[in-house]
Amino acid sequence: MSTDQTGHSGASTPESAGNPGAAGPEFLQLITPAGERISHPEFDFWVRDITDDQLCSLFEDMTVIRRIDVEATALQRQGELALWPPLLGQEAAQIGSGRSLRADDFVFSSYRENGVAYCRGVDLTDLLRVWRGNASGGWDPYSINMATPQIIIGAQTLHATGYAMGIQNDGADAVAVTYFGDGATSEGDVNEAMVFAASFQVPVVFFCTNNHWAISEPVRLQSHIQLADRAAGFGIPSLRVDGNDVLAVMAATRLALDRARRGGGPTFIEAVTYRMGPHTTADDPTRYRDANELEDWAAKDPISRLAGLLERKGLLTGELQQQVKDKADTVAAQMRRGCTTMPEPQPMDIFKHVYSTPNSWLERQQDHYARYLASFGDPAGAVQEEGVR
Description:
Protein name: Pyruvate dehydrogenase E1 component alpha subunit
EC number: 1.2.4.1
Number of helices: 15
CATH superfamily of the largest domain: Thiamin diphosphate (ThDP)-binding fold, Pyr/PP domains
Domain Dehydrogenase E1 component: 62-330
CATH topology of the largest domain: Rossmann fold
Strand content: 5-15%
Organism: Pseudarthrobacter niigatensis
Order of helices and strands: EEEHHEHHHHEHEEEHHEHEHHHHH
Structural class: alpha/beta
Number of strands: 10
CATH class of the largest domain: Alpha Beta
Shape: globular
Cofactor: thiamine diphosphate
């Protein structure tokens, strides 16, 4: 059973029992797939300040990051990127949570949270550096308080818990937030992180994006209970939320952040959504996924859902739609330009940022490699050789 801050819990219905993708009574939803606003006595409080203008901004955010995702996928298909991990269908989970964070909170993400990075203010060119093969890290983590994407499944949860222990020792009220997929819950790192987080009651939010597929394995194969229910075994309260409902995600994230800031320790959020595209652009989901399943989830599209609410409120005007389209097109063009004009890395760049301070062991390797390049008459190698002497 999943437990909210007030201690209420909901038992699984026959339909949801044994099916971690089903919606039981603990499935928090504030906007239906048709765009109808649902009143919730406990969670309305956490989004009571969201104005009509802010709803429009959330609509813009989700539209823009979908456009970023489509553009990046196109860049990969055109040979400009080596790989890209699409977020199509997961916009509400990323924007709803990302827009709930304070500037001093610190994010530790997987490789798919490009929407959260957008919320943190990442430079769009930096978003692509790793996937173009031009850098081993995309940005300075401390410039936006977000670590660079973690490729090792689940490792970022340990980093977040350690960072949260530091926050606790400093006596600050910032929060560490870590994002991971449903597949990562099978990794030892995630479970070890939750043990430490619960033991020391550190200010960390575990945000599990249940998109139903860990590459080609369905979530029901990994867990015969809802993922949020696993947290109880660690003594961590959990929330199970409709991950395609931006308001519900925002309410759950705000509640978890508030609990952490008040010294209430960690929270586990399971955002139930769906990966509409492939795991990465190297994947072919048609080999393992039923087309009917994709069609069913397309009817729950997070952007269409919010658009439905805006329409009901008389806010989805032609002017707003054009404004949002123009913003999305501008951002996509900016990102494409940054990608195609990105300077190619130089051979000696491989030695940059390996250690925080220079050391003789690395300098000797630099010297040997520079001499090796120079032996081929490489003027760049020869020039850089002088720089390391």
